[in-house]
Amino acid sequence: xxxxxxxxxxxPAPGAEIIEVDIPQPGPGELLVKNKxxxxxxxxxxxxEWDNWAQSxxxxxxxxxxxxxxxxxxxxxxxxTHVKVGDIVSGETHIYCGHCYLCKMGNEHICKDxxxxxxxxxxxxxxxxxxxxxxxxxxxxxLAIEHMSAQEPMGNAVHTVFEGGDVKxxxxxIFGCGPIGACAAAICKASGATQIFAMDISDxxxxxxxxxxxxxxxxxxxKDPVKEIMAATNNQGVDVFLEMSGAAPIYEQGFKILRPGxxxxxxxxxxxxxxxxxxxxxxxxxxxxxxxxxxxxxxxWETAAKLLAEGKVDMGKLVTHKFPMSxxxxxxxxxxxxNSGKIVMYPDK
Length: 349
Fold this sequence. Notes:
This protein is of the alpha/beta class.
């Protein structure tokens, strides 16, 4: 059996290591993909650091990672698919059943039996992976391979920005300026938002958000975002509040600066329970609050692809670092520092 290299969580402790395993074979309904680029998500950092969430969810040993772009090398037996050998595909992380009530209602991303690639099953930090054919997104070959890999997190931003309405002519506050938050700034700008406030505690990431389209950036360690935003909006607050970090204090701040009748999109995953003043922050404001999980399949991908094809979102600014996968430790340390956008790795040959 031919072998490949992969980055795996081999034991229940911080860190990871390169291992050698068999190249997988595609079964019925599956594709074999040779990865050309993979990218690091914040979830991968949780797994790498082995925090409380990772300890409660991840079973070792496991190849992790879920953002990738690669070439289809083989189509498994009895597979009905539009995908062809030679296509360059990315993958939807949510592996859905396709037949439960939620899937039938167009909510595959919250399928009751959903499995997440690189969390509940084998991930993509490897030379090859097998994947369900119904989770493959075929990319235009004109798109840079790094940008193909980063489409999956871009989809999170698209879903968060547009769930519940448009942002044209509206003011938006984005809390958390990692790759998804910075991408959200670009999407808001492309969609006609009038004011785009971006908050973070990292000047590097605030500068990234500024370059992507934020009109005002605020370092929350240096200034009170509530005072700054209320002053800038004549004490009206913003039309849309987007939470992208999961940091506990942000929820209180966000609902304070949300105007009555406004909309909130909550994507960040908090480590612990978060106290929220529901009465004053949501009920009396008649706020519309949306929890965001992944992407809408495949509408979010279509929207992201259109934004990229029209040049309205510059993924070249978002991808800030590139490494061979053998240098994963350096890549993860930079990711943990906050001084990066999206980090792409290339599987070792």
